[in-house]
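Notes from the 1:1 (GR / supervisor)

We went over the backlog. Supervisor wanted to see one worked example end to end before approving the batch request, so GR pasted a single chain during the call. The sequence is below; no edits were made to it. Supervisor asked that the structure be written out right there so they could see what the output format looks like.
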Amino acid sequence: MLYLRDLTYHPPACHTPILKSVNLQVAPQQLGLVIGPSGSGKSTLLEILAGLAAPTTGKVFWREQELTPMHLEQLSGLVFQFPERHFCGSTILEELRLGHPELTRDRITEALTEVGLAHLPSSTAPHALSGGQQRRLALAVQLIRQPHLLLLDEPTAGLDWSMRQQVVGLLAKLKNHWSLLVVSHDASELINIADHCWTLHQGELTPISLAELRAKNQRSQVFLPEQPSQ
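Structure output shown during the call:
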């Protein structure tokens, strides 16, 4: 179980905090969904939970253990928005082994099977994959690390309808084994697989029920505009 207690992030260069007294919890085998516009602090929240930034105040716990950024690096796997832009390997195998030269073939096959890519030759170039397959590979890269918590920033951004549905289906499958926290500007395709939802506006996180979110979705069919992440 992941707990955030009164977490605030206020870099010296900013006049106001990017995150303000955030409280959140995500249970094992559940998917938490945070919805907010660009500049609301969504990506910053994930960076803190991935150990890439330290909160100014507040605490992060996994079960009863308080976590440092170093702990969070080991606990979490972060899939950035448009992760395919960060691929460095010339083949699927090379991409998975970056930083993990000791990986066995069995562990690689296990990760690729989990994301539905085991049928592809390991010599395939990542940039030769479809958009949906590239997102799956990005998830496999994190699963190789065997994290307890998967963090995803706008996982369906830039994909066509069929590829978005593939990614949503994969996330529904992955939450059977991992805790997931997803941030997005658009809740429409993720509501049905979410267990808990929050809205994030100007750094303030507010719980919202799935029923209320579905009702708003049905009434308006208008979502927050997709813009570059903060």
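Supervisor's comment: The first helix runs from residue 42 to 49.
Batch request approved.
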